[in-house]
Every structure is written in C-alpha cells, then in structure tokens.
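Lab meeting tomorrow. Please check the following:
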Amino acid sequence: MRIDMELGSRSYPILVERGCLNRLGSLANLQRNILVVTDTGVPKPLVEAALAQCPQGHLITLPQGEGSKSLAAFETLLTRMLELGFSRKDGVLALGGGVIGDLAGFAAGCYMRGIDFINCPTTTLSQVDSSIGGKTAVNLGGSKNQVGVFHQQAGAGGPGYPPYPAAPALAAGLAEALKAGLIGDPQLFALLEQGDLQAHLEEILCRSLLVKKALVEQDEREAGPRAALNLGHTIGHAIESEEGLGGLYHGECVGLGMLPMILDPQLKQRTIAVLEGLGLPHTIRYDGAAIFRRLCHDKKADSGYVTLVRVPALADTGWTGRPFRPCPPSSGRESDEPGYHGPKPDVDPVWGKPRPRRGLRGPGAGPGAGDRPGFHGPAAATAQGRSPPIHRPAGGGSAPDPERGIPGPHHRHGPVPADPQPGYP
C-alpha cells in the first residue's frame, strides 16, 4: 500500500508492503552519495539489500540501543559526511528502528542546513509511528529527545513488517498502534482487541500511519491538533528516563503513560485488557515525585507547566492548553523545604491521589505488585520525600553508566539494549 503525506513542497510517499526494501529507489533518488546508517541489530541481508541500491552508498554501523541516540553519535555522522565530501544534493538513509531513524534524520536535518532523508524502518514501533512525521532528535542528560529538529523525509518505507507477533519487541511497538486507535480510529482499537495480530498486522500498520498522517497534515509543527499524538508520551518519557534509558521498551512506557489519561473507566479497562493480551505491563511501582520532576524537563513544558493529552472517550482527545500542574522549582531543593510549590511527598503528583507508603503502583496494586523478574523501578520515596536510586536486581549486572544513563547487562530484556530486534521481510 502506498500512503502519500501531503505537505506541499515537503510531501513524500510511504510504502507499506512486504518486500518494499527492494523498491527504495521509488521513494527517493539513490543515484548520489548516500550515507546508510544502521545498527548492529539489523540483519545483514537487509543491509546488503539497501546498499545494493546505492551505487555511491557509504555504510556506518552503530551499536544497537538507546545509547546510540546521542550527541556523540550525531557528531560521528556529521564528521563522516564531511570527510566523504557530501554536498547539499546528497542524502542520508536510515535503516533500523526508532533510535536510528531519529538520529539519522537529525543529522540529515542539520548537515549543511538540511539534506534529503530517507527512512527505512525495521521495527514495529518505527513502522507504525516514528518513521513518519518529521520529528528527529537525540537524548541529552538521560532525558528523551531533548535536542532535535523538524525535518521531513524524502520518503519512508521499510523492509516489510515483522512476521512474529508474539515477539516482545513487536508487542511493545504495537503500543503506538493502540495509541492511534484511542485517539482517532475505533476500528483499529477493535482489531487490537481481537488479538489476531498476524492476520491483521498490515491493516494495523496502515491504520496507525493514517491516523498520524491526518494529524501531521493538519499541524506539521505541533502547534495544535498534532499534540494528540503525545498521548502517553509525556508521562511515558518520564518513566523511561527514570528507569534509565534502555530499561524498558519505549512502547511499554507509552502504554503505562496512557492509562492515567483515559478518563472513561470502561475504556481504561478495555485498554488494560489489550495491554495484557500483548504481554505489556499495565502496573508499575515508582516514586511519583521523581516522575513529576522528570515531567518538568519535558520539551513540551512551558513556563513551568506541563499539559497532558487526555482521552474522555474512544477516538476523542481533549486538552485545554492549561497547565496540568505547576512544576516544582528546578533548584534541586527537596519537597519538604520552604518555598517548594509542588505537591507534598505523600501525594502522587501525576495522578493527584494519596501515595501508599510502599510507593505508587498502578491498578491492582498489592503485595508484590510490580515485582516481576528484572523489574528495576525505584521503591517508595524516603520519609524526607527524596527520590531513591533506581533499584536493580541483586546478584549481578554492572552499574549504570552515569554519562549515558544506560543500565548494565542485567536490564529487563537481557543484554540487548532497548531498540527492538528488527523483523525480516
């Protein structure tokens, strides 16, 4: 299926079909210098297929995972293009998941004030969401997507959707499809409720992209309606950063971040059922005050306030532009100090409800809630309201890297960082 993003002079085609990796030349001109950016998790046959269509292709392979979404990797790409003599007429091709797409797109948007960018997503999450729309970014200071630009693609099309719906990475990616259903497509939501993902995967991908396409065409730079796509992301990014970038899949954090924003109790239970069916978490234990401090550094925060997207009903979103809650001061003072204007330590600052002594938990909280193997969210805050360090399972694993915010090899999904394994055509 071909979908056309209609943005005037910045319009581009999107291909969604098996085997479309071999048709990259129909998306954009590959008969020029092309920097092919990929990572160590992308299967070699996919890399070879992309390079075969780029007579002047130059390959750069980065380590798989969130650690590559950095200013250091960004500089590596720019330096390589400069060394190769890239001009404004050349281009960058991203072959990988969301990390590679965001990084390569950012480099393409900045090199010589912008060169062509072709996005070839290889993971479910990137195929249903991040591969289109023009948002590019890298992480900074352990926080998600703090540095980036809007830079629309010359085209987008992947090697085909993954064939293994039971895979954890695929399920996590479908959390973005669930978001799309909640904000704009009841039929998409129903497909996910049915659970037969193999039979409906192509339709799920296409419907997800169509929801995003409609919002991007209305509001390319997120000044209004496009903000609906942030459902689950503001809180989700805070959870992701607090866990340590790479600790949970991005899609898992988005799913967790959506739940408190669903106002209809029945719809919330239906959403929880979908998450359970996908094998994704819907309860988590964390320090609410720490999450709230992360919210205040969200790139969408404005003048000390945070606005969140809410879902009153299926395919309905609402936000008034008013602040959700005032942010605490960024001076580093603890919440029990005079002059602190945020919530008291015994109140959950995100949900606005009393926080249990053992720490905030999601639905179904009780003894052992959130204590699944490998879970490494923090326990309850101390009596002083201070945020405890992130809890890691005992008995192994290296300490987190303070420079990159990446957990050691004991993180929940094993030694492979959070960027999911790509699917095969």
Remarks:
- The two ends are 15 Å apart (CA to CA).
- The chain has two domains: 2-161, 165-392.
